[in-house]
Amino acid sequence: MTTTTTPQQPAAAGAAPGPGKLPRISYFGYAAGDMANNLAFTTATMFLLVYYTDVAGISAAAAGTLFLVARIFDAFTDVWAGRVVDKTYTRRWGKFRPFILFGAFPLLALTFATFHVPQIGESGMLLYAYVTYIALGLAYTFVNIPYGSLAAAMTQVPAERAKLASARTIGAAVTGGFLGIFVAPMLTADRDLQQVFTNVTLLFVVVGCALYFFTFMTAKERVERDVEHVSMRQSLANLKGNKPLLMLCVSTLLLLTGMITSSTASIYFLRDVFQSLHLYPVVAGSQLVLMLVVAPFVPKVVRRFGKRSAYIAGGVIGATGSTIAFLAPSVWIALAGNILGMFGILFVSIVIWALEADTVEYGEWKTGVRTEGTTYAIFSFTRKAGQALGGALGAYALAVGGYVAGAEVQSTAAEWGIRAAAGLIPALLTLGAALVMLAYPLTDDLHARIVAEIKDRRAAAGDTAAHDPHTSTAALATEDPQPPFAGTDTK
User: Fold this and answer.
1) Predicted TM-score of the model (pTM)
2) DSSP 372-420
3) Same domain, 370 and 461
4) Helices (DSSP H) in 155-192: which residue ranges?
5) Is residue 490 a part of any domain in this protein?
6) Residue 481, pLDDT score
7) Does residue 451 register a pLDDT over 90?
């Protein structure tokens, strides 16, 4: 089976977009989806450890184990969710959008429940935390897998995919900026933190549902498919031999582990090492400004240097910034290192989504079957594993250093544990992620040849089917499972 892109619909303003271009509203709709995703994901990443240790009274070590267990379980559910998505298809709404529509409220309601641990004894609180956090991860999976798969189904044009990747990254940054600028400064000892989290998560239920509905209405699937319900055998065949996906997953595992470790420790870093929690909005605001200024230029950089080169360069810059933050003698040098690191990670965070979409075509080129759901699920599996390891590493670094919840002054060992989580561990892992991509085989030139070959196969299958009505394009694809230039895929 191969695919092609259907004719584009008119833009919202009434003017038809250029050849191969998506309507402008599609970019806004796709960005809104990741804004909503991060009302659940980034809120948990940034604040859940603080909530568990400083509000619920769960120890840092116990919270670290909870993160590790829950997120590893969550990673395995991604594979199951990918299979469910690939087997699903509706004539009215397509393959992915129904999950976004019907999964929005359960996801956001569970975010509220996760930040409301009842005082029912140490064992009871820990059990409640495990159940709600695992349920939150499962709900997030059944929204995020379809959302992430949607980009590959919206267009096959590389420039448009780069724009979608920029759009979703900006959407995530807007949410992250809001959390950092308006929510993080409220987490001070003189406030009722439970009431803060109650108000914030209730607001997110309303706003998040509206954002998801906007995505559902505007981010339409435009890439045709001959096989609507993909079998397990077809999914496994598609993944087998997909070297670009494997290497991207390894790099992503390292990258996400470092990013989540840093994010988990960021509040402690400013509050307990430099006594400067009031500067957290500066960090969040800087990230948002960088995203809004730089993201529109990333597609141009990609066209000039290629996705792989942009990814590697961003990783090296990100590692350098984290190292500076780890060693910083003052808060201002730490902030400078943090901003430099964010600049590098920005490129990686945008390009990574376009790279994942490219691996969908690589698998289709190999097998003739398009499996966005399973491909994204495997990719998401490694991201969730990175989130699990990163959250655990951040918590364990605090525990090893001897962090004491609620203490006005932490010990020197505790401060260095926080520094390691905020800077050293992310620097080493981000550099490792960049080095892995030196051997990444799916260059932009090769991807362009693959897309052209897929279109040629479809045209040939259509001509053959016209002469023999009993021959399907899916059957034709499986008769020639070897790509015509498989020996060149390492260029």
Assistant:
1) 0.66
2) HHHHHHHHHHHHHHHHHHHHHHHHHHHHHHT--TT-SS--HHHHHHHHI
3) no
4) 158-178
5) no
6) 37
7) no
Q: Are 483 and 366 in contact (CB under 8 A)?
A: yes
Measured between alpha carbons, how far is residue 298 from residues 157, 294, 314, 321, 447 in Å?
A: 16, 7, 11, 19, 18
CB atoms within 10 A of CB 222: 19
For the stretch 262-313, pLDDT in tens is 988 888 898 888 988 888 888 878 877 887 787 788 878 888 888 899 999 9
* Neighbour count for residue 202 (Cβ, 10 Å): 13
Does residue 12 sit within a domain?
no
Q: Taking CA 165 as the corner, what is the angle to CA 163 and CA 170, rounded to the nearest 5 degrees?
A: 95
* Residues of the domain holding 192: 24-222+243-442
> Alpha-carbon distance 72 to 379, whole Å?
14
* Calpha distance 345→434 (Å, rounded): 11
Average of pLDDT values for 131-142? Answer: 94
Q: Rounded distance, CA 410 to CA 248, Å? A: 39
More confident residue, 441 or 239: 441
Clarify whether residues 364 and 460 are in a common domain: no
Same-domain check for residues 72 and 180: yes
Evaluate whether residue 237 is within a structural domain.
no
